[in-house]
Amino acid sequence: MAYNIVTIAGSLRKDGFSLKIANALAKLAPASLKLEVITPAGISFFNQDLEGAPPADWLAFREKLRASNGVLFVTPEYNRSIPGVLKNAIDVASRPYGKSSFLGKPVGIISNSPGPLGGVSAAKHLQTILPGISGPILQQPEIYLNGVGDAFDAEGNLTKDSLKTVLQQYIDAFAAHVAKNQG
């Protein structure tokens, strides 16, 4: 049996590195994981006034998360944090209070940047946001991918061997984390 993992690529850009990394992870995942790669596209803005009758897009996103066995975040860094669309998705999924769709779900965090810091500030912000609304977060290995600008070919295939090695190590560790934290 494969564990179903919702893999959220944290930006909306169709050629974004986070989406390319998420798709590469789906290909590298061991047989014990089935990654469904999504983006925050189509998730309307969170507004607490709508909680009594939540929009259909909120309900569908929440149900997708609830039906999963874990969540993997792949985020770029925007202005030393996560993209606003990713924070909005987290806000939508974590409500109503006490009924977070992330509760009990093993979580992984991967940040990335074409620059030298690898999105470390974005990853740290997720590590601040998620406790209390999610399940156990994979602590080791930490993964902050830098220099990802030349890691993919024109079709979005991962071509950088050093990045492939790191991603393989991470997805294998995440698979063990998910297996360990299932009911």
Automatic annotation (TrEMBL):
Organism domain of life: Bacteria
Pfam families, per database record: FMN_red
Xref: InterPro entries: Flavoprotein-like_sf (IPR029039), FMN_Rdtase-like_dom (IPR005025), NAD(P)H-dep_reductase (IPR050712)
Residues annotated as domain NADPH-dependent FMN reductase-like: 4-145
Protein name (Swiss-Prot/TrEMBL): NAD(P)H-dependent oxidoreductase
Organism: Bradyrhizobium agreste
